[in-house]
Design goal:
elongated, three-stranded antiparallel sheet, binds magnesium ion, binds adenosine-5'-diphosphate, alpha+beta, eight-stranded mixed sheet, 15 strands, 16 helices, about 40% helix
């Protein structure tokens, strides 16, 4: 029997917690980490007689997202009740949007190994978050913390356009970068501000009809998204190849065991009996509101990437790495403004040494202990030939660990590069004299020995001789 080639189909539903001070339908605080239930206000748990009032800021942030991807923004949208029972949802329903979401169709482009690919966005709707079940510290029982109930979410639903786990992760990263550029969410995945449900199915390559999908809920890291999807793809292919079939269901990813497990089947849990919420009127956005949001859009990641390529002559790869986090891009631009070194050199140092040092200490660029001016002054000393790039790495670690001035480091440690031609020439002469055997080899036609001489000069000078001059002088003497 010929073996089937399988095609993977993935659609993502991403929940982005919007960065508002208060809840979506009430004035209670949304701050993370408060004592349990201190922010569980009457509206978030729907005590009898209370009424929800829409938070304008949440609408503004949703529109900002819609405009940033050139999506249709619906000037009239409707809130609906999604009915289901769960301990962390004492109201018995979640207020969401169903038939008329605030953001309609849009697109996001991603880079894949086969080039640029457009991923369709079906919709993005506003909804309230539920509370949280807490198991830790409870013996044979579960605690409920309703602080998160009523926190505004934007759920961004993609078309089933992704064809591999890695495409899904690329899309997700792109979305993550975007919401943080827009300042609509802090995107903190550990705290649940950016979480993803992955819908996964497989079909024989060439078949038009989609296979039955499983939905993996609430995956909270990029790495787990990739692993969960890959596990799920293998599971589904095995099932089908064994003559069985995939059932439509919700599954959970267990990162410790690296597997997905069935949580509930769709048949049991899928009838949410959506209906328009009678307590909330349709939300109508005025043109002037939408226009003011449009004017508030920042430079978007794609634009910034193009500008970095144009303005700083960077490669697309470097530009892409620099813009992924807005703060890294800001840091890089600040360095460029202050140094006479080439932007390409600044990019190498930000992406190389600086990123490595941050990773080493598990710091994000926001908490970078080294000001951009310090790195700029270090790069100046490379640019004006005071130190070589190699020595600069030594100086970098001293700057990183707190020393203020590059010049002081160079002075104190005697790191200054030797650029005096006469001085280098003297050293070269001694080395050629004491290594006459190698000189004969070189003259006899073995060019590899050249590197040996360079190495000797560097050794003798503790790496401080200007490499370009060393090469020139050696060539003059030998050729
Ligand atoms: P539901 O209401 O059950 O969540 P939707 O039709 O809204 O279902 O789809 C949810 C997500 O599932 C979307 O991101 C969509 O792209 C994706 N999806 C739908 N069908 C498939 C499929 N066969 N394989 C993979 N993903 C799918
Ligand atoms: Mg869904």
């Amino acid at each position: 029997m010929a073996t089937t080639t399988w095609e993977v189909v993935i659609g993502l539903e991403v929940h982005v917690q919007l960065q508002t001070k208060s809840k979506i339908f009430a004035g209670a605080s949304t701050a993370y980490g408060a004592e349990p239930n201190t922010q569980a206000c009457d509206v978030s748990i729907a005590l009898p007689g209370v009424l929800p009032v829409m938070n304008k800021e949440a609408a503004r942030l949703a529109v900002k997202f819609g405009l940033s991807i050139g999506a249709l923004v619906n000037q009239r949208s409707i809130f609906a009740r999604k009915n289901y029972f769960y301990p962390d949802l004492p109201k018995g329903y979640q207020i969401s949007q169903f038939e008329l979401p605030i953001v309609g169709k849009g697109e996001l482009e991603i880079e894949t190994d086969k080039g640029t690919k457009v991923i369709g966005i079906t919709r993005a709707h506003l909804e309230e978050d539920a509370g949280k079940s807490v198991h830790e510290g409870f013996n044979h029982s579960t605690g409920i913390d309703l602080n998160r109930a009523g926190t505004p979410l934007l759920e961004i639903v993609s078309e089933p356009d992704m064809r591999s786990a890695s495409e899904a992760v690329t899309y997700l990263r792109k979305l993550h970068t975007l919401v943080r550029y827009l300042d609509i969410s802090d995107g903190n995945m550990q705290e649940g501000s950016f979480r993803c449900d992955a819908n996964v199915s497989v079909r024989p390559k060439g078949q038009e009809e989609f296979g039955t999908r499983a939905e993996i809920k609430n995956i909270n890291s990029f790495r787990f998204v990739e692993k969960a999807i890959n596990y799920e793809v293998d599971r589904q292919i095995d099932l089908i190849e064994d003559g069985s079939e995939v059932v439509q269901e919700t599954r959970l990813y267990d990162s410790e065991k690296d597997e997905t497990r069935s949580m509930r089947s769709k048949e049991e849990a899928h009838d949410y009996r959506y209906f328009p919420d009678p307590d909330l009127p349709a939300m109508v956005l005025e043109d002037s509101f939408i226009e003011s949001v449009r004017r508030s859009l920042p430079e978007l990641p794609e634009k910034r990437k193009d500008r970095f390529i144009q303005e700083f002559s960077l490669s697309p790869t470097d530009a892409d790495k620099l813009i992924t986090e807005k703060e890294t891009a800001n840091y890089f631009e600040a360095v460029c403004e202050k140094t006479m070194a080439e932007p390409k050199i600044a990019a190498n140092w930000v992406l190389g040494e600086l990123t490595a040092a941050l990773n080493q200490e598990n710091l994000s660029i926001i908490d970078c202990p080294m000001e951009s001016s310090k790195l700029a002054s270090l790069l100046d000393r490379i640019a004006d030939n005071t130190i070589s790039g190699k020595i600069a790495k030594e100086a970098f670690s001293l700057l990183w660990s707190g020393t203020d001035s590059v010049d002081k480091i160079i002075e104190d440690k005697g790191l200054k590069q030797i650029t005096d031609t006469g001085e280098i020439e003297k050293i070269v002469d001694t080395i050629l004299q004491t290594n006459s055997a190698q000189v004969d080899q070189y003259k006899g036609g073995n060019p590899k020995v050249f590197g040996f001489f360079v190495g000797q000069v560097m050794k003798q000078t503790g790496g401080k001789a200007n490499p370009k001059q060393v090469n020139e002088i050696l060539r003059n003497k030998l050729d």
